[in-house]
Amino acid sequence: MKRHLFLITFLLSATAGQASDPGDLFHFSTAVPAPGQKISFDYSAAAGKLAGATDIRAAIFYYTAAKGAGYYAGECSLRQIGKDKWKGSFILPDSALAFALRLKSGKITEDNNGRGCIFPVYKKGTPVPGSFAAAALLYANGDPLLGLPGKADTAMSLLEKEFSLHPELREKYTSSWYAVLVNIKKQDAYPILDKKTRELLASPTPSEEDYRLAVRLLHLQKKKQPADSVLGIAATRFPLSEIAIQHAENEFYKIKSLDSLVAFYYDFQKNHPATDERSLAAETGSYFASTISSRYIQKKEYRKAIGYAAQMNDAMADYRGYMYNWVALTLLNSDSALSLADSLIQAALSGVDQELTHPEKFKRQGTPLADWQSDIDKYYRAAFNDTYAKILAKKGDVKKALSIQQTSVSLSGGENNGFNEHYIKFLLLAGDTRTARQQSEVYIRENKASDSVKVWFRELYVKEYGSDNGYDDYLANLQSAAKTRFREQAIKEKMNLPSKAFSLKDLDGNEVSLASLHGKVVVIDFWATWCGPCKASFPAMQTAVDKYRKDTNVVFLFIDTWESMGADERLSAVKKFLSDSKYSFHILLDKVVDLEKKQYSVVSDYGVGGIPTKFIIGPQGNIVFKAIGFDGNNDKLISELSVYIDLAKG
Fold it and tell me: What confidence tens digit (pLDDT) does each residue in 515-529 have?
């Protein structure tokens, strides 16, 4: 008998769990999902963010309290059954306490009108103990996992519901409760956390868990020095614990001398032998090795750099390959070192191939398989092939270089302007001007062309038509098409995430708060004086600033962060940079949390993983767009920022 699909609706009560309202977008095969059950669903994309998409990927994220507690990603089948109609299914893991369904096409995630699809798990029609808390944690982490607005109030109500039904679970989820409390009450929650911290440390014999929670609470209050102090005491009392490894990591990054770093690394390996490649000791040791390797690269002692990179474990083969690639790139200008560069790239490629062949061994537990494979292809295999093509071209094998560069462009999805530029360059070296012209036109129309590609395209146009008559109009039409294409994409990518309040000093000592700019569109650009891509983007950013100079409803803030200098030296360096460069930027100084680790307050609050990163905040104070990195295309950056700002204005 055919199973009828019906809409899931949950109410927060003693017998039913609160979850997302799927609205008109989703229909599920059950209102009480159970562990081990096959669950099917229908998705109507027409009214959602993925309308018109033909390449939607589905995955589930679930939380488990079993061995290896935490977030896991599970696979989900999905097939198109009509225009904007999709059908999917998945088997809910036996250990799942709550789960979330995520649908994604490219960079765009279906957020179900900001509600998401998060559900508790049932057994015999009754919520499983811990299911409300697990759903709460999915809500609390909805932004990085699911592209959802933060829902701290919902997370708190679910946690409180869990504790009322199962008071014995309060201790298990108490750290999460305090984190959600800080999200809701901000600094007003600090006295509550401070009281709990003092209670934990007042015990004559605090347990390892007591210390762990105390450190967590101190970090939530941004009390770094007291947290480090407690961490040191805990490491002394529990020398073989994970908290001792955390303390060792703190101490490692305080060391300036390379010889001392090396000595510390070997002591760490002796005191914390890795039990397996996924253990915290193995991961931490690998990061230590990569840091030492990078220091030797900077000293141009490449053999030692390679040796320490080789000590990174296989679970980090992609990042180990990144270190090999870095060395290979530095050797490109030395003909005598090309063989070594070639060997390093082959080792890098072999490592990621090994990873991809054994996802059951190497895939990150919280990343869907398709996402993990795509990330390795886009950010590692594509880069390694790009370097390999350069090596081949240096050796004179342009034909093979061109073939390898095609692979690099394909793996990156054509999204990396540098890889695209190298492809056109090799086409020209091979004498294939026809393909070079055609592909350059495609890249320009799709806003994926570097400035060099545009120069070559002009030369090819003149060569074909005998002059540059009509070229400017032809180029303008291509760029107009690119802007229209990007605007359509940006509309789908538009977010509505809560921004993080901040108040920072500018270079003149004036305090600037985000709250004071309510009602305006605010463009925040995180940067640092040492960041090459940041500085490379600044000519385009200056053009954007000039474009909106007379628009009092648009404000640009350039937040300097992740510097390794003391306060006075930093202020002097930033002022000198601004003076020398002649940029008219309003620069704010991010607050230092931990100088040794380059940890800063606002950049951390915004979850930035690399710079430059830009946030466009709308007049109502919510984040509406986020842009990461700079690909060297000034026109593209200016055009895309203009689209973001116009859409943010509404």
Answer: 999 999 999 999 999
CA distance 538 to 507: 18
Residue-level pLDDT at 21: 59
Residue 202 zone, left/alpha/beta (φ > 0; ψ -120 to 50; rest): alpha
Tokens of 448: 């994926």
**C-alpha distances in angstroms, 441 versus 407, 438, 449, 576?**
20, 5, 9, 41
Pairing mode of beta strands 503-506, 613-617: unpaired
Q: Distance between CA 164 and CA 12 in Å, rounded?
A: 12
What is the greatest pairwise CA distance in the chain?
Answer: 88
**Residues 186, 190: Cα–Cα separation, whole Å:** 8
**Cα gap 602→610, rounded to integer Å:** 13
* Sign, Cα dihedral of 293, 606, 158, 103: negative
Reported as a pLDDT band with limits 50, 70 and 90, residue 207 is very high
Contact in structure between 304 and 296 (CB atoms under 8 Å): yes
- Closest among 488, 502, 584 to 544, alpha carbons compared: 584
Q: Identify which of 118, 103, 91 has the alpha carbon closest to the alpha carbon of residue 22.
A: 118
